[in-house]
Specification:
The chain has about 325 residues and is α/β, with parallel strands linked by helices. The chain contains ten helices and ten strands. Helix 1 runs parallel beside helix 2 and helix 2 crosses helix 3.
């Protein structure tokens, strides 16, 4: 990245409800987490900021010891610095350790709620030229000391290639994407590693807390996978710890979210679970393919689901 150290295991705040998320962030920091992942679109940064201030003021945890990420939302491509300033204000911080372009798909903020339908109101879509413009604005945040590093999220190999061939003044530090044994994205991981871009996994447990309207009866259940469960039994640990351990063994960052203190602690103990070669071979041999976070709202009327992922959309086999 930029020479800074990013703890591989982090605490996520997506889908954490108001009046709950702040307390969960406090518990995470108090129990040893030192990497917190946020985003403006999560709608909870103000409460997370209150938690940061409370914990840092208490003195046991210092701001400089915590790696904090946030993300530029798709409606804010024309106001990058303003959006970052708003995030810093809400999080009650003077800088971010990492600021990401949340998605490569732009949405016109004048045309409604992007989540309102399959097509999505105001979807402009992807343009490599537009991403280059946004990146130049992101670089200014680093020069201004508002972000120590910058990166992307949900970028596929073709989109990464388009960005990396631009004349970058600040390197792409990170690509945060969905990663788990049902969506391993091996080619993307290999490409990013070759180009010194750190991969960070969201949804490592298969997003069990997804909203009901995003779940169908035919969706697989990663935590109940027979291979995952058998390895958990072998190590006397939980399926969640196995899945987190799988990501850590691949040397990617891993973000796990919970609002339950016992599970927050349990997930952190994944660092003590050491998967062996046989475990990794078995997990990597899983043939089910499924992307839980499809982002279908970002699809234009004339696009198929696969087009959002440049042919890398993965379905159940």
């Amino acid at each position: 990245m930029n020479g800074a150290s990013m703890p591989l295991f982090g605490f996520g705040t997506w889908l954490s409800e108001p009046k709950v998320v702040g307390e969960s962030v406090k518990k995470a920091l108090e129990n040893g987490y030192r990497h917190i992942d946020c985003a403006s679109v999560y709608g909870n940064e103000a409460e997370v900021g209150e938690a940061f201030t409370a914990v840092f003021n208490a003195g046991a945890v210092k701001r400089e010891d915590v790696f904090i990420t946030s993300k530029l939302w798709v409606t804010d491509f024309s106001k990058v610095e303003e959006a970052c300033d708003e995030t810093l204000k809400n999080l009650q911080l003077s800088y971010l350790d990492l600021y990401l372009i949340h998605l490569p798909f732009e949405v016109n903020p004048e045309e409604g709620n992007p989540f309102s339908g399959k097509k999505g109101d105001g979807v402009v879509g992807y343009s490599s030229e537009r991403i280059e413009q946004v990146w130049k604005e992101m670089e200014k945040l680093v020069s201004a000391g508002k972000a120590k590093a910058i990166g992307v999220s949900n970028f596929t190999i073709p989109k990464m290639k388009n960005l990396l061939k631009c004349p970058l003044q600040v390197p792409v530090a990170c690509n945060q994407v969905e990663l788990h044994p049902y969506c391993p994205q091996d080619s993307l991981l290999e490409y990013c590693e070759k180009n010194n871009v750190k991969m960070v996994a969201f949804g490592p447990l298969g997003n069990p807390g997804r909203p009901a309207d995003l779940v169908t009866e035919t969706d697989p259940h990663l935590l109940s996978d027979s291979v995952v469960k058998s390895i958990a039994e072998k190590h006397s640990c939980t399926p969640a710890q196995v899945l987190i351990g799988w990501g850590l063994e691949r040397k990617t960052g891993v973000l796990a979210k919970s609002v339950n203190e016992s599970r927050i602690v349990e997930n952190l103990k994944s660092l003590d679970v050491k998967l062996d070669t046989d475990d990794m071979v078995a997990l990597n041999a899983i043939t089910t393919r499924f992307r839980f976070c499809k982002q279908l709202w970002a699809r234009k009327a004339d696009e198929e689901e696969e087009d959002l992922w440049d042919g890398e959309y993965v379905k159940k086999l």
